[in-house]
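Field notebook, page 308. I keep forgetting to write these up properly, so this time I am using the form the group agreed on. The chain and the ligand, cytidine-5'-monophosphate, are recorded exactly as supplied. Prediction of the bound pose follows.
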Amino acid sequence: MGATISQAAGVLKLTAPGKINLALRVVGPRPDGYHELVSVVTAVTLVDELSVSARSAPGIELISDVPGFDVGEANLIVRAAGALARRATIEPRLTIRLEKRIPVGGGMGGGSTDAACILQALNRWWELGWSTEALASLAAELGSDVPMFLYGDAAVLRGRGERVEPIEWRWPGWFLLLAPDFGVSTARVYQAWSASPTRSERDPLAVIGASDAAAGVLRGLLFNDLQEPACRVESRLRALLGEIHRTAGVDALVSGSGSTCFALFDERDAAEHAAAELAKGGGLRSWVVRAVGAESQGRGVCYGNHRG
Ligand code: C5P
């Protein structure tokens, strides 16, 4: 999903974009413990930066710039690299560096985009020649949100999120992303949904045809069935949505299972003004970003056979 990969002096440099869910309908629980959903997502221009280089000792070494960040075997990047190496019967000797920008535990797919980006990068590094479909099947084993990042800049997701239908979505407006200093557990939010299901009657696909709409019109088409359960799991999230409404005068939406919230603006200046007002309250990180599809028009950013 808009990942970029470039190579210089034996180092692969990667950028991995986060996503926001524009519409998310939970259809219902599945026998395998997951939930069936239909969601429209777009990659946004808030990216993690990664690099891959060789090291002489065997193994996968992950170095991150986030204090306390788990860089061990449970990390999705390490698991992705390890799983691909095993399938390809390669002994990995890698150092992966991560500069984390996407909020951790924020509902923006930060861990998933890093993992997908590493799969694409190592497919090239080891000259495996795997198709996008083959990478996506491995990606789905790593997490429901990983496959979407192997495809285009926006997509309709189905199943537990692993069935990806790429779409074009080039809304030219601006998103204000707001990340509080707490995360929300995805598993707990889905549990809360099951305990008291919220189902929007709206069509999640309506947003696809509205990529040239004004922010106010587009906002009316967005919804997230996980927002209410996420607010029940974490009451500070409900308080944050109220604060955004009072301070910025807009109705923000939770991305995925939270805790990142986003609001829509037609003009960049208005988004930055709202960010500055909200920053006065403290405890929030914010970014003004766009849909990757709007930014990459005519730019040819995609590496590899993204559209399968
Ligand atoms: O697939 P992933 O490991 O990212 O999912 C984390 C947790 O979120 C799952 O263990 C499950 O409890 C919940 N989940 C779900 N339905 C989905 C995706 C995730 O119930 N479609």
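OBSERVATIONS:
- Confidence is low (pLDDT under 50) at residues 298-308.
- Residues 34-35, 37, 143-145, 160-161, 186-187, 190 surround cytidine-5'-monophosphate (CB under 6 Å).
FOLLOW-UP: compare against the apo run.
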